[in-house]
Amino acid sequence: MGLIMDSMIGFGRDFKVEDGVLMKYTGNDTEVTIPDGVTSIGESAFENCERLTSIMLPDSVTSIDYMAFCQGKSFGFHYRTTNNMTSIDYNVFHDCRNLKEIKINKNNNTCCDVDGVLFSKDKKILVAYPAGREGSYSIPEGVTNIGDNAFYDCERLTSINIPDSVVSIGIFAFWDCTWLTRINIPDRVKSIGDNAFGLCTHLRRINIPDSVTSIGDSAFNGCRNLKEIKITIHIVIWTEYFSARIKKHLLYVRQVEREVILYQRV
């Protein structure tokens, strides 16, 4: 109790801070300036702060934990990190459906942004795409990994161009991208993570190339409008990849050389 009282005195009544970690913001402001001396934004610290539109971080902040800003539905600011940031956990912006841009200080040694999209410093991992953006997006050539939750809840994303450099698609990578209708997976992709395309409810066609050797559980779960899957014959289609509703309607139609084409029954 003494620790919490000390944190309130030093950082203000709206900030619960323990050992430099902002554990919870309890205020109701639309614009928040995090006090200097806070070193980390804790897990779910701003959860359900639905009025929040902007946050200013002090240079003392070096890390942001899992789902720190989750369900900030008004969170539509152009987010900027300090140059001291060393760690941003995945899914930090969960359900921040108005977020348009993520900007990283150019002197940051851990991550960077390319046109407002968050990448690892070497630009090989796409970490987070702002969920508030609309339309199509082309992942830059040279990216090798689409990170876990990278496009999570990007409901207004209509098409995605994945370059040939990509070799893996992480868990929940395109979860709930409801307006994606078709995805072409490049020939170098080796693995597709659990729930990677779950709840892509308008996804109608997908091509899985010969290079893929691993498909995670429920990778296409909830894709209720999936009509056609092209997959090479050496890949065994385990039932966990698809929801029960889709499995019931998928029908093996034909094999052309080494390619199996599955269609959904009319």
Please give a structural write-up.
A 7-stranded mixed β-sheet has the order 10-11-12-14-16-18-20, with no helix packed on it. The chain has a 5-stranded mixed β-sheet with strand order 1-2-4-6-8. Strands 17-19-21-23-22 form a 5-stranded mixed β-sheet. It is built from 2 helices and 23 strands. The relative contact order is 0.07. It is mainly beta and 266 residues long. The N and C termini lie far apart (63 Å). The chain is elongated and about 60 Å long.
Structural class: mainly beta
Biggest β-sheet strands, sense, barrel: 7 strands, mixed
Spatial gap, N to C terminus: 63 Å
Arithmetic mean pLDDT: 80
User: Largest beta sheet: what is the strand line-up?
Assistant: 10-11-12-14-16-18-20
Q: What's the helix-strand series?
A: HEEEEEEEEEEEEEEEEEEEEEHEE
Low-pLDDT residue intervals, each spanning 5 or more residues = 1-9, 249-261
Strand content: 25-35%
Specify the overall morphology. Answer: elongated
Radius of gyration (CA) equals: 21 Å
Please count the helical segments: 2
How many beta-strand segments?
A: 23
Helix content: under 10%
